[in-house]
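note to self: dont lose this again. the chain is below, predicted strucutre after it. 363 aa total, dont forget to put it in the shared folder this time
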Amino acid sequence: MHYDLIVIGAGPAGSSTAYWSSKHGLRVLLIEKHNLPRFKLCAGCLSKRVEGLLPDGWESLVLNKIRVGRLGYKGEEYAEAYSKEPVAYIVDRSSFDAFLANKAQEAGAELIDGCQFYHFEREGQGYRVFTSKGSFLCDFLVGADGFYSRVAKVLGYERKKFFRSLEFFTHDGIHEEVLIEIGMVKRGYLWVFPHGAGISVGVASTGKEDLLSLLKAYSDKKGIAYKHPKGWHIPFVEKEEELHLGKDRVLLVGDSAGMADPLLGEGIYYALWAGKLLSQALLENPKSPLNTYSELTKPLREELIYAGKIARLAYSFQKIAYRMGKSFAIKSFYELLSGRKSYANIYRKGLFKFLVEFLKLSF
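---
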């Protein structure tokens, strides 16, 4: 069977690519190694700015609408800000990912789940893709198979920067509030998010801290019913050359390309955004889609790079970051999550305030 496009991985990045490509007339095969729906470790927080990137009907998946953000420092000091309108939404990733894959099918994509991708080879002008359910031919191949992307490995890419993350789900009573604790790890944060009637509790760090002991101690201190967590990795980039978009007619999207926020680890928004841009590149420039994909993703790459600039300052000077959060940063992030500001805006306007706070602590 010959396809215009084969997408490996039916997470948000892969399903977004398949959805938009199918909607515009391409013959698409979407391959997922697990049977859908499947469990997925993730707090499931969607920033409000995803609204224009999602197919109709996504609202029915929302478990919680977030209107309150709390910023903590070492579990002892807290600041919060309230928004009249939701700035983020909580979804269950199992249901959310299945919804996106179903929408891709409704748009015309063919889905094969429970199918392991092995490797690919060049054949003519396209590629032969080898899987546990046979081999398939395509003109273009997209790797959307996450942090451990086999497609990226075949292309020779290595993942060098990432957060180690642990998370567990338990019962509690918050519904419209998210809490982010800084000062707990050298670079990263601890979170408590609502998840339907319960909560998601987790920690992410780029360092080598004992995250299991840290999460247990925090839960005991705060009276949270602790459950043994599970772990995963979140890739991120801070420089242009660290983002891997692919080679020739093999393109990468989402975590496979390293498209996660280096400050907060948010990946779903960038995955959905990049999936739409990738499909646009295939349609506009089928002879050399990588060049067009690179051009179209410039604003996305700029966001990730400026998020990295903020992350280096915020995590190197976490007390200052907390003080800035109390005065203006939380509300600035509300505007970011709503799509009214960019990381570049926040960095440029916040740098002077950061220097003022730095001088206050230094003298």
